[in-house]
Amino acid sequence: MPTPTLVNRQYKDSVFSRYFSEPQRLIELYNSIKGAHYPPDADVDIQTLEDVLFHEQINDLAFLLEHRLIILIEHQSTINLNLPLRLLLYIARVYEKVLDNADIYKRGLIKIPKPEFIVLYNADAFKEADIPDLLELKVAVYNINEGCNAELLRRSRSLSEYAAFVAQVRRGTAEKQPLETAVKNAIRYCLANDVMGEFLTAHGSEVENMIMTEFNLETAKQVWREEWLEEGREEGREEGVELGMEKSRRLTIQNMKRENLPDETIARIFNMTVEEVQQSLN
In which band, very low, low, confident or very high, does the pLDDT at 225 lie, cut at 50, 70 and 90? Predict the structure, then answer.
């Protein structure tokens, strides 16, 4: 099996993907979730795609552990009922990456690693959703907010510390701290209390940028449609709706640029080209 590799950094990381890209931490997390007993030096090969599963940012890890192919996702917004379909398409692309393309033309049966799908849900509210069973694909979903799944968090120190860090940021924003202040205070708190200490010491400034991007995108997604509709209502006619949406989009892009989001990320979110993003700022 290939030597373990780091997730490709061409696209914007999330704190989650960077934190759990360390093989021993990833093994500890998987053991805690599945009740497995893989040793810290088990053979891990990270195969995360150089693409974005949810078209916003990378919050996922695809990795081979012994003879299993695991898709691990942190999902920070409403569970999408099409998640099984997205994961089916995703796993097919991972298999393309793992297998020799020539193998599919062989007459003999090709043995492939057994896939597993795990979603760690980390949002402010959670409601169970009935996922259509037209496509039978099982996805295990775990709520990792503070106060939820205490036994799982007890088994995995890495996951418990990550959940505590995210909760600390949210606690700051709930107290009306500016997001940047809340993130910095959360990092200081965690360093003082030995929470993700080694990781935050090595990557503190990167974590600030990552978490700012994640939280700002979550907030932006909640208000875009409301802004567009409101602008349209103010114009009072059909062409006014289009004008209002365009004005709101320009304003949102300007705000995202002030938060130092790359043009490529903004383009993916709005389904635009980088050139169109740059033109909208003029």
Answer: low
